[in-house]
Amino acid sequence: MPRFEQLRHRPPSPLAEPRELVLACAPLRSRVNLSRIVRVSGSMGVTRIHVTDSLRLDRKIAREAADHVTIARHGSLAPLLKRLRSDGYRLAGLEQSVGSESLFEHRFASKTALVVGNERRGL
């Protein structure tokens, strides 16, 4: 039986083509949450996150993803979403509610902006 070896801190694999998935975050309450979002985004090939707050990134949490994910800061969410839509992005809200569709069953458009809500207030 082959020996299990956990590989950590590997550099990201190059994508065959640019991933046209960006994240747009409502104002978050904690830099820990922002750092975790950056870390997960880096592992999924997402290279750009739009935030509407001034939270700093915790590099201990975000790890190497902090070097590969660009954070763009904006004053508020509504004008950002209008601009993303005019740039051809389809908006998809990430929120758990009564009428939500499963994230695993949703068919994403090729250019999608995934909008992440606030931890308590949602979208």
Q: How are the SSEs ordered, and which strands pair?
A:
Elements (H helix, E strand, L loop, with lengths): L20 E5 L5 H14 L3 E4 L7 H4 L2 H4 L1 E4 L3 H10 L3 E5 L17 E5 L7
Parallel strand pairs: 1-2, 1-5, 2-3, 4-5
Task: Characterize the structure shown.
Helix 1 links the parallel strand 1 (21-25) and strand 2 (48-51). The radius of gyration is 16 Å and the shape is globular. 19% of the residues are buried. It is an alpha/beta fold and 123 residues long. 26% of the residues lie in helices and 19% in strands. The longest helix has 14 residues, at 31-44. The N and C termini lie far apart (49 Å). The model has no long low-confidence stretch (mean pLDDT 86).
| Overall pLDDT metric | 86
Helix percent reads 25-40%
The CATH class of the domain at 24-94 and 107-116 is: Alpha Beta
CATH architecture of the domain at 24-94 and 107-116: 3-Layer(aba) Sandwich
- Which shape, going by the Cα principal axes? globular
The overall strand count is: 5
The CATH homologous superfamily of the domain at 24-94 and 107-116 = SPOUT methyltransferase, trefoil knot domain
Order of helices and strands: EHEHHEHEE
**Spatial ordering of strands, largest sheet:** 3-2-1-5-4
List the keywords.
123 residues, alpha/beta, Alpha/beta knot, 5-stranded parallel β-sheet, 4 helices
Question: How would you summarize this macromolecular structure in one to three sentences?
Answer:
By secondary structure, the protein is of the alpha/beta class.
